[in-house]
Amino acid sequence: EPEVTQTPSHQVTQMGQEVILRCVPISNHLYFYWYRQILGQKVEFLVSFYNNEISEKSEIFDDQFSVERPDGSNFTLKIRSTKLEDSAMYFCASGGSDYGAQYFGPGTRLLVL
Amino acid sequence: QKEVEQNSGPLSVPEGAIASLNCTYSDRVSQSFFWYRQYSGKSPELIMSIYSNGDKEDGRFTAQLNKASQYVSLLIRDSQPSDSATYLCASRFSGNTPLVFGKGTRLSVIA
To answer: Does A60 reach chain B within 8 Å, measured CB to CB?
Structure first.
């Protein structure tokens, strides 16, 4: 069964450093998302991406964040200068159609020291 | 502000019983609703989606939607210890818009 994959599974970084989180969505899906979940809190939307551009972003997704789809398979989230409060699980999700379900990858646990 | 509310639990049920999980949402025009299961430290795993008023059954799971009351529920029949997890309710306004999640209800099935 097709699934969303994410790398790395864990990332430890120093405050102020740049991190890139990578995702390979399900191959025939058209809609891509990044969510995050701070420990003990709800899953929060960051950004959605469709047709090679951002379709929607939340207040969390400020100028420190960017997304790219550099080729036909990868979807990346970059945090330019990490802050302590960026420590969270970051989930990539993809969806195949309007109104269809979103399928989540296993996540990247980011720890900023 | 779109909100999805769930009782955080824990909800404890004996093995073999029916677990009933509830969710309300604030945005009257939300179109679609989803239940995800999340084990500790893992990602959300889709269990059910529901788009129309009424019941939708899939194996041991039944989702119920009442748009007039802005209420979604999930019933798990013949609960098993492996069902012990946090269940996340999510709504979506339309099309491919982002999911809005509740905080989740922690279910514990006691053997």
So the answer is: no
Residue of B nearest to A102 (CA): B46
Question: What is the Cα–Cα distance from A67 to A35, expressed in whole angstroms?
Answer: 12
Whose CA is closest to A111, among A92, A83, A91?
A83
Residue B6 pLDDT:
95
Give, as one character, the DSSP assignment of residue B8.
Answer: -
Across the strands, what pairs with A37? Answer: A89
A103 and A39 Cβ atoms separated by less than 8 Å? no
pLDDT at A96: 86
- Chain B hits for A104, Cβ within 8 Å: 36, 43-46
Nearest to A35 by CA among B11, B51, B33, B101: B101
Using the beta-carbon criterion (under 8 Å), do B98 and A107 form an inter-chain contact? no
End-to-end CA distance of chain A: give it in Å, rounded.
37
Give the model's confidence band at B29: pLDDT under 50 very low, under 70 low, under 90 confident, else very high: confident
Pairing label, strands A53-57, A44-50: antiparallel
Burial class (CB in 10 A: 0-12, 13-18, 19+), A10: exposed
Sorted by sequence, the CB contacts under 8 Å of residue B79 that are 6+ apart come out as B13, B14, B15, B16, B17, B18, B19, B107, B109
* Residue that wins the pLDDT comparison between B40 and B30: B40
